[in-house]
Write a structure and sequence with these properties.
CATH superfamily of the largest domain in chain A: CO dehydrogenase flavoprotein, C-terminal domain
Largest interface: A-B, 41 and 39 residues
Structural class of chain A: alpha+beta
Largest sheet of chain B: 5 strands, mixed
Order of helices and strands of chain A: EHEHEEEHHHHHHHEEEEEEEHHH
Number of strands of chain B: 5
Strand order of the largest sheet of chain B: 2-1-5-3-4
CATH topology of the largest domain in chain A: Enolase-like, domain 1
CATH topology of the largest domain in chain B: Ubiquitin-like (UB roll)
Radius of gyration of chain A: 20 Å
Strand order of the largest sheet of chain A: 4-5-8-6-7
CATH class of the largest domain in chain B: Alpha Beta
Strand content of chain A: 15-25%
Number of helices of chain A: 12
Radius of gyration of chain B: 17 Å
Number of helices of chain B: 5
Oligomer: heterodimer
Number of domains of chain A: 2
Helix content of chain A: 25-40%
Shape of chain A: globular
Shape of chain B: globular
């Protein structure tokens, strides 16, 4: 690991000033960046440790019925907050389907949003990667591309965004609060990530020094609490990134869908909101034919970026399954294997 | 905030003993601090990348991967390692259960497994469901494949600890 200057700011303003310097990175729990630094994938000259800043670790109910999650709230604390999990069950399920218990105990909300892709070519410094080394090329193209993007990718980059948490967040209209050199601003999560295009090294709309201070969910997001699920297909049942995942949330009147929310994970370099599918579902009966139409709409623009055409069909099936489970109702208790297609609603034992 | 530092003084409480440590390098992880500077080598270095769980310790009551935690960032932390769980010759109930249920073969992952199990039991989310125990222990790999014994040990230790705490209350 390259050495670095360690700075511990006393305020958000000091943090922003320190992190705006060239070569600086923020440090929260470090579960992603320390891994990347050990592998030589990134080598910041300065780490700005924000973990001791006050006031960033609260889960606050807002007067308008929404919730504000401080950037330093740990993944496990958010997922196990009873009131939060009751109101936003798909978010809790996504959190608990990610990483391991040890990592969830450390990893923060802000860090989750800013985690880097797990593309193996990004991680392997001997491989060409436009994200790690702009202009170097992309060895994932034509390489082992089984897990790569099927939506929104470019010739320069076919990596995917690895977060589970962000998938239900984007479906539920989460807003990111950012402090920058020009003060505080708010960015809908749906607009937070850039498409890779010609500049895959630029992953979000953040400018140097910008710091995530909170993520908010609006009051309306809790209207889906009775019918909200996250479903995630992995190469192993636990402690693995998504091959494909989906967050599905419905508001039902009888068997009619009043409003639907759908987002996909593991398919693009951002949590992928499927608004076309939501439009298909609005006003429809909650039944398999509508779910299949929604799945077709969600994946209409998909194309393989390599040896991964199977992910398009898999994503359609995950959409149908997630919508089916959401329509059946949020379980009173999360399954033993959160988000697993091998877990029945009641939490049946996996073989 | 001040200028970037070159030497850091960090106070940690490790297994009940408060120590001030001079760190000459900000790159030192809690894992390397324990093993290389404090000679607490019970905590193991497996992958050093947060994937295997061999380095699991309990920091401020939470199980974490010590390989992905910078020591300098954890000033003031209360740390529990495998060296701190037994009471003299009396094993911690989780240690005793790992022996009773053959929850190990080579033993390299065992300190991490035990610390993770202690954390899991404290979290209180798994109950007596072996599937939830397996899921909760998925951050600890065992290349000997002693998983069945590990799950049984965690369930048994949890029952013992639950009975003990009920006794204390009574």
């Amino acid at each position: 690991m390259k050495t670095f200057d360690y700075v511990r700011p006393a305020s958000v303003e000091e943090a922003v000033a320190a992190a705006a310097q060239p070569g600086a990175s923020y440090l929260a729990a470090g579960t992603n960046i320390l891994d990347l630094m050990k592998g030589g994938i990134v080598g910041p000259s300065r780490l700005v440790d924000v973990t001791h800043l006050p006031g960033l670790d609260a889960i606050e109910d807002l007067a308008d019925g929404g919730v504000r999650i401080g950037a330093l709230v740990r993944n496990a604390d958010l997922a196990h907050d009873r009131d939060f999990a009751r109101r936003f069950p798909a978010v809790a399920e996504a959190l608990l389907s990610g990483a391991s218990a040890q990592l969830r105990n450390a990893a923060t909300v802000g860090g989750n949003l800013l985690q880097r892709t797990r593309c193996a070519y990004f991680y392997d410094v001997a491989s060409a990667c436009n994200k790690r080394d702009p202009g170097a090329g992309c060895d994932a193209r034509g390489g082992d591309s089984r897990l790569h993007a099927i939506l929104g990718w470019s010739e320069r980059c076919i990596a995917t965004h690895s977060s589970d948490f962000c998938v239900p967040l984007v479906a539920l209209d989460a807003v990111v609060e950012v402090e920058g050199r020009a003060g505080r601003r708010e960015i809908p999560l749906e607009m937070f990530y850039r498409s890779p295009g010609e500049t895959p090294e630029r992953e979000s709309v953040l400018d140097p020094g910008d710091m995530i201070v909170a993520v908010r969910l609006p009051a309306e997001a809790a209207n889906f609490s009775a019918h909200a699920r996250y479903l995630k297909v992995r190469d192993r049942t636990s402690y693995a990134f998504a091959v494909v995942s989906a967050a599905a949330a419905l508001r039902l009147t009888g068997d009619k869908i009043t409003e639907a929310r759908l987002a996909l994970g593991g398919v693009a370099m951002k949590p992928w909101r499927a608004r076309e599918a939501e439009a298909v579902l609005a006003g429809a009966r909650a039944e398999p034919s509508a779910f299949h139409r929604a799945a077709e709409a969600a994946l209409a623009g998909a194309k393989p970026s390599g040896d991964n055409a199977f992910k398009i069909e898999l994503a359609k099936r995950i959409v149908v399954r997630a919508l089916t489970l959401a329509a059946a109702g949020t379980p009173a208790r999360l399954p033993a294997l959160p988000a697993s297609p091998f877990a029945a609603v009641s939490g049946v034992a996996h073989v | 905030m001040g200028l970037p530092n070159t030497c850091f003084s960090t106070t940690l409480t490790i297994n009940g003993v408060t120590t001030t440590i001079e760190l000459d390098d900000p790159r030192v992880t809690l894992l390397d601090l324990l093993r290389e500077r404090l000679q607490l080598t019970g905590t193991k270095k497996g992958c050093d990348r947060g994937q295997c769980g061999a380095c699991t310790i309990i920091v401020d009551g939470r199980r974490v991967n010590s390989c992905l935690a910078l020591a300098v960032s954890h000033a003031g932390a209360d740390i529990l390692t495998i060296e701190g769980v037994a009471r003299g010759d009396r094993l911690h109930p989780v240690q005793a259960a790992f022996l009773a249920h053959d929850g190990l073969q080579c033993g390299f992952c065992t300190p991490g497994q035990i610390m993770s199990a202690i954390g899991l039991i404290q979290e209180g989310e798994a109950g007596d469901d072996p599937e939830r125990v397996r899921e909760g222990m998925s951050g600890n790999l065992c290349r000997c494949g002693a998983y069945q014994g590990i799950t049984e040990a965690v369930l048994d230790a949890q029952a013992v600890l639950g009975a003990a705490s009920r006794k204390e209350v009574a």
